[in-house]
Amino acid sequence: MKPAIKITKTNQSRINEVDFDNIPFGRVFSDHMFVADYYDGQWQDYRIVPFANFEIHPASMVLHYGQSIFEGMKASVSQSGKAMFLSPELHAQRLNTSAERMCMPTFPEEVFLEALHALVNLDQAWIPPQTGSALYIRPLMFATDEFIGVKPSHNYRMLIFTGPVGPYYPKPVSLLAEDKYIRAAVGGVGAAKTAGNYAASLLPARLANEKGYDQVLWLDGKDFKYVQEVGTMNIFFVLNGKVITPPTDENTILKGITRKMAIQILEDNGYQVEVRKLSMDEIVEAYNKGQFQEAFGTGTAAVVAKVSKVAYKDMVMELDQNTAKIGQVIKDHIDGLRNGTVADKWNWIVPVKEMAAVEL
Ligand code: COI
Fold this sequence. Notes:
With 360 residues, this protein is α+β, with helices and mostly antiparallel strands. It has 2 domains: 6-167, Aminotransferase class 4, branched-chain amino acid transferase, N-terminal domain (D-amino Acid Aminotransferase, Chain A, domain 1); 173-324, D-amino Acid Aminotransferase, Chain A, domain 2. The protein contains 8 helices and 17 strands. It has helices at 61-65, 88-101, 109-122, 195-200, 202-210, 257-268, 280-288, 326-339, and strands spanning 6-7, 32-39, 42-50, 68-70, 73-77, 83-86, 134-143, 156-165, 173-177, 215-217, 234-239, 242-245, 273-275, 292-299, 303-312, 315-318, 349-351. Strands 1, 2, 3, 4, 5, 6, 7, 8 and 17 form a 9-stranded mixed sheet that branches. Helix 6 (257-268) crosses helix 8. The longest helix has 14 residues, at 88-101. Residues 72, 232, 299-301 line the site of 2-OXO-4-methylpentanoic acid.
C-alpha cells in the first residue's frame, strides 16, 4: 500500500522571486517540504507542508549531542521536459546506513521514495533547466528529545526540502593535503553523512583557505600517508594514465553515489579504475616524473570538480587543465543522462511520478 502523505499546498508561491540564471548554491528554497516525526517507536505523520521555520526546544538533543544525518541528491529535467532522479534508492539506503551508525532509527525506504516523488512533483517548476543546474534535495534527520544527558534520543524528525542550484564549484579547486588534522579514522564515523564530520572540517578548511587553497585533501588518520577524500566530494587521481581512487571499505570515506557512477562510466568508456590505497608519496613521485596528469572530485553537489593543484608539505603540484580530460568524460555523461541525450544503460534514471502522494 502507498504510504499516506498529507499535503498542504502553499497559497503563495515564491517562485517568481527567483532568478534562475543566477542561483547561488544552497540559498534558495522551494515552496514545500516533507516532514515526518518518530515517536512511540515509529515514523508517523507523513506530511508535505509549505516550506517554513519551525520551533525547536533549547534542550533538543540534536543541538547538544549531534545526532543529525543528511543526504544530498538532485532532480533534473530533460530537454523534453521530463523530471527525474538519479538512483534515489541508493540515497535512501545510505541515509539508513548513516542512521545505524549514529544510533538513529532507519527511515522506511518506500516512504522516502514516495515523499521524493510527491515533493518534486509538487515543486517541479523549481527545477532549473540549464545544464549543470538542478533541484538540490536535502533529506535531513535529527534527534528531538528535550533532554540533557548523553544517550540516544527517543524522538526524531525527518525533513526533505529542496532548492534550485547552479554548480557547487564553478572553477577548478585547489587542494591542500592536510598533515595535522584528520577527518576520519578507522572505527570512526567517516562513512556516515553526519553533521559532526562537516563541523570538524571547518577549522582545517579555514586554515587551508588562509593559505590560499579552496579545500582540504584529507589523509588517513593514522599515518597521514594515504589519500581519503575532500569532505565535499570523493577524489580521483590520474597517474601515468591510470585512474586511481581510494577504497571505501574501511568506512573512513563517504560511499559516494556519484563516485560509484563515475567508476562505472569510466569502465564503460574503456578506462580501468584502480580502487586502492594511494599514498601522497606515490602522487609526488608521479608528479616528479611528469606523470601526475589529472585529479578530480565527484559528489552530488560538485558532480565532477576539476582540481587545479595539490599542495603537500612544501610541494605544490600544479595540474594542466588543458590535458585533463577524464573527469570531463564523467561530467559529460552525467549531464547527458540528465538532459536525456545519453542512454541510461544502468537504469540510474528514475522519472518523477506524475502524482504519487495521497491527499487526505
Ligand atoms: C553533496 O554533495 O550533496 C553534499 O552533501 C556535500 C555538501 C558539500 C553540499
